[in-house]
Amino acid sequence: MNREIIEEYQAYTKKIGNRKTLYKIVADEYNIKTAIYPGSHIDLTPSLVIPKVTYIDNFKGSINFFKHIDSIKEYLEQKKEYPDSCEINFLGQDYNQPLEIEEVDLIISQYAGFVGQATKDNLKVGGILLCNDSHGDASLAKSDEDFKLIGIVDRNNKIKNKNLEKYFILPKGKSINIKKVKEKMKGLKYNEVAENYLFRKVK
């Protein structure tokens, strides 16, 4: 095993915060077996709790990192928290381009742009989009008839699916300007915000 690669991942996890609990509660709640992670950089953490994950990133550092996929798989096999064997794939490309992959149970969108919009065709009907609104991805999903808001994940990594109508409401009853969200690539200042949002693909 290439220890330098594993140490690089561990250092990155310390930098961004360990998201394992986030991914695990979503995987457990919605019986997630397959996922894509567009704009993943080198965050391998989903593979600790989800058996089959495809990572997608065209950043040079990510491409170089995933060249050591055998060492990565060896590490994940030791650390995974499910009985299945770990299946991990990497696509070194822009996620806005067509993806040659099967439909999955989950899209992970974390600080990487309009992931949900770009890759929703790769999500099964009934599948889940986990996203935040850092770049406006959650705002776009809320305004997309293909998605339905079914829950939020709070800062304590608890899923909540009640009183969802209080989210995505702007002060003074202003309407959501999707054009502005796309132009600025930034979430809006809603009255109530969550750490992460959960949308189901309904059609």
Contiguous helical run count: 7
- State mean pLDDT (0 to 100 scale): 96
Contiguous uncertain segments of 5+ residues: none
Instruction: Specify the CATH homologous superfamily.
Output: Vaccinia Virus protein VP39
Q: Share of helix among residues?
A: 25-40%
By CATH, the architecture is named 3-Layer(aba) Sandwich
Total number of beta strands: 8
* Strands in their spatial order, largest beta sheet: 3-2-1-4-5-8-6-7
Distance between the first and last residues' Cα: 43 Å
H-E order: HHEEHHEEHEHEEHE
At the fold tier of CATH, the topology name is: Rossmann fold
Oligomeric nature of the chains: single chain
Shape: globular
Short summary:
The protein has helices at residues 3-16, 20-29, 60-65, 69-79, 115-119, 137-142, 178-184; strands at residues 34-38, 52-56, 87-91, 104-109, 123-131, 147-153, 159-160, 196-201.
Structure characterization notes:
- With 203 residues, the chain is α/β, with parallel strands linked by helices.
- The chain has one domain: Rossmann fold (3-Layer(aba) Sandwich).
- Helices cover 29% and strands 22% of the residues.
- It contains seven helices and eight strands.
- It has helices at residues 3-16, 20-29, 60-65, 69-79, 115-119, 137-142, 178-184, and strands spanning 34-38, 52-56, 87-91, 104-109, 123-131, 147-153, 159-160, 196-201.
- An eight-stranded mixed sheet has the order 3-2-1-4-5-8-6-7.
- β4 (104-109), α5 (115-119) and β5 form a beta-alpha-beta unit.
- The radius of gyration is 17 Å and the shape is globular.
- The model has no long low-confidence stretch (mean pLDDT 96).
